Amino acid sequence: MISIARINTTPVKGLGLQHPAEVLLTHAGVETDRRFYLRSRGRLYSVKDFGALVAVSPVFAADQLTLSFPSGERVSGPVNLGAAVETIFWGRPVRGRVVEGPWADALTAYTGSPLTLIQTEQPGTGIDIAVGTLVGRASCVRLGAELGTEIDPRCFRMLVELDGLSAHAEDDWTGSRLALGQAIVVVGGPVPRCVVTTQDPDSGQVRFDTLRALRRYRALRDGRYVDFGVYFSVEQPGLVRVGDPVRLL
After folding, report:
1. How far is residue 166's CA from residue 231's CA, in Å, rounded to a whole number?
2. Over the stretch 57-115, which tens digit does the pLDDT of each residue have?
3. How large is the average pLDDT for residues 4-29?
4. What separation in angstroms does the CA of 144 have from each of 7, 75, 88, 195, 206?
5. For strand 3-7 and strand 160-163, is the pairing parallel, antiparallel, or unpaired?
6. What is the pTM of this model?
7. Would strands 246-248 and 3-7 be described as parallel, antiparallel, or unpaired?
């Protein structure tokens, strides 16, 4: 049986992952996922710029944002919005509002880069391409065999991890409809990977040569893209829980 093994979300793009037991999938995905992002000198700033962002744990609930740093420092307060801004995410504009409060200063001190915290104007717009991503854990096992070490699926920061698949079986689902818990989703194309996948998911330090290994045993798409996992959109919203069955429709 194919089932949901883990759910990975983060309210602040690039920061540490949370693992809720259940989420509501809407047409905007998980609406609190990637609802905030960081901006530096007018451009998007993420874990590719500073790997240790993943060691900062964010919690967003009831309009209250809390960031917990590895040092033990904790910055918390209500979210108050200021000026409107627009940031380019891989060629598309994302509108948002500056978040006023202590978080930007704390993150600036932590990273050494001048940062602004932004809340997206609309849920679901702080993602890369599509509102959902999924990967089978067996694909991570196959990649680990290529590298001679265990690969934590969190390296890929996918929304949903699945058990019960053979390695890379999700690649064959493009265009298929899935019952994902109570939701129905439509699988899109493959997810092109970047250097973030080489980083330890807890520290952000480079640990795994994932990209070279993937190029070695998998063909490049269009001669340039290193793919791993797939995107999905939400056709019918619904509750999704860890342990829920997944069915092809």
Report:
1. 18
2. 999 998 999 999 999 999 999 999 999 999 999 888 999 999 999 999 999 999 999 99
3. 98
4. 21, 37, 34, 16, 15
5. antiparallel
6. 0.95
7. unpaired
Cα diameter, the chain: 49
Q: Contacts by 140-147 with C-beta closer than 8 Å and gap 24+?
A: 141/167, 142/167, 142/168, 143/210, 143/213, 143/214, 143/228, 146/213, 146/214, 146/216, 146/217, 147/208, 147/209, 147/210, 147/213
The order of strands in the sheet holding 80-89 is 43-45, 36-40, 116-120, 92-100, 80-89
Q: CATH second-level architecture of 3-26+130-248? A: Beta Barrel (2.40)
Sequence-distant (≥ 6) Cβ neighbours of residue 242 within 8 angstroms: 4, 5, 6, 7, 21, 22
Concatenating the DSSP letter of every residue in 196-238 gives GGGB-TTT--B---HHHHHHHHSPPBTTTB-EEEEEEEEEE-E
Tokens of 99: 């978040």
Task: Please say whether the beta carbons of 188 and 232 come within 8 A.
Answer: yes
Token pair 């000026």 is found at 83
- Residue 142: helix, strand or coil by DSSP? helix
3-class DSSP state of 25: strand
Could you identify the residue written with the tokens 């500056």? 98
In the chain, which segments carry CATH 2.40.33.20?
Answer: 3-26+130-248
Place of tokens 């710029």: 49
Q: Exposure of 66 by Cβ count < 10 A (0-12 exposed, 13-18 middle, 19+ buried)?
A: middle
